[in-house]
Specification:
- The chain has two domains: about 1-40; about 45-194, Calycin beta-barrel core domain (Lipocalin).
- A ten-stranded antiparallel β-barrel has the order 1-2-3-4-5-6-7-8-9-12. A two-stranded antiparallel sheet has the order 10-11.
- The protein starts with a helix and ends with a strand.
- It has helices spanning about 1-35, 40-50; strands spanning about 55-65, 70-80, 85-90, 100-110, 115, 125-130, 130-140, 140-150, 155-165, 170, 175-180, 185-194.
- A hairpin with a 4-residue loop joins strand 2 and strand 3 (about 85-90).
- It has about 190 residues and is an alpha+beta fold.
- The protein has two helices and twelve strands.
Length: about 190
C-alpha cells in the first residue's frame, strides 16, 4: 500500500510541477503578446531586413516574350553595415562576371521607404509593403518593376520589364480619365537560398 501511495504522490507532484511550469510559461507568452504593439516601427523594420541578411545563391532565369529561357548563376550578399545601411551586392556569373556592389539605405522607418544606391549617382526608391520590397523605375526607355521577398527561407527576386512607350491608350471622355497600358516583354526571376 505504501509504494502505491508514494507512486500516487510522485505522479501528483509531477503533474502539479508541470502545471505550475505551464502556467508560468503562459503568463510570459501573454505578457509578450500584450507588449507586442508597443514594439517600435524601427525595430520591426530592422527585424524585417535581418531576414534578408546572408549569402544567397541560385540561378537567375531570364524569360523573353517568346518564352526563351536563359539561366545565369547568381549570388547575393546582403549584410548590415550600419543601423540604416545594408550591403546589397549581386554577382552574375556569366562568361564575364557582372558585379553590382550596391547599398540599401533606410530613408523612413515608419513608412517603409528605402533607397538603393548603385554607387554611381543612380538612386532607386524602394518601398516595403507588407513583407515585400518593391521598386518601379524607368531606364532608357524601359519600365522595370522589381520585387524582393523571403518565402520559406528563400529569397525571391523578380524584375518584369517592357518599353516605356504605351502599348495602348484608353480614354473615357465622360470621366476625363486617360489610361495608358504597357507591355511586359521580359521577366528575370530567381529563387535564391543560403
Amino acid at each position: 500500500m505504501v509504494p502505491v501511495l508514494l507512486m500516487h504522490l510522485r505522479t501528483r507532484f509531477s503533474l502539479t510541477q508541470s502545471l505550475t511550469w505551464n502556467l508560468k510559461r503562459m503568463h510570459k507568452i501573454c505578457l509578450l503578446l500584450l507588449l507586442l504593439p508597443a514594439v517600435s516601427p524601427a525595430y520591426a523594420q530592422h527585424f524585417f531586413l535581418s531576414a534578408f541578411e546572408g549569402n544567397w545563391k541560385g540561378d537567375l532565369e531570364i524569360i523573353g516574350s517568346r518564352r526563351q529561357v536563359q539561366r545565369v548563376p547568381m549570388q547575393m550578399e546582403i549584410k548590415k553595415l550600419t543601423d540604416s545601411v545594408w550591403l546589397w551586392k549581386t554577382t552574375y556569373a556569366a562568361e564575364k562576371p557582372i558585379i553590382k556592389n550596391y547599398t540599401l539605405h533606410m530613408r523612413n522607418e515608419e513608412e517603409g521607404k528605402y533607397m538603393l544606391d548603385e554607387g554611381d549617382g543612380i538612386l532607386i526608391h524602394i518601398n516595403r509593403l507588407d513583407n515585400k520590397l518593391y521598386a518601379l523605375f524607368n531606364v532608357e526607355g524601359s519600365i522595370l518593376a522589381c520585387t524582393y521577398e523571403i518565402i520559406a527561407d528563400k529569397l525571391h527576386y523578380e524584375i518584369a520589364s517592357g518599353p516605356a512607350k504605351p502599348a495602348g491608350l484608353s480614354a473615357i471622355n465622360e470621366k476625363k480619365i486617360t489610361i495608358n497600358s504597357y507591355e511586359i516583354r521580359s521577366l528575370q526571376r530567381a529563387r535564391l537560398q543560403k
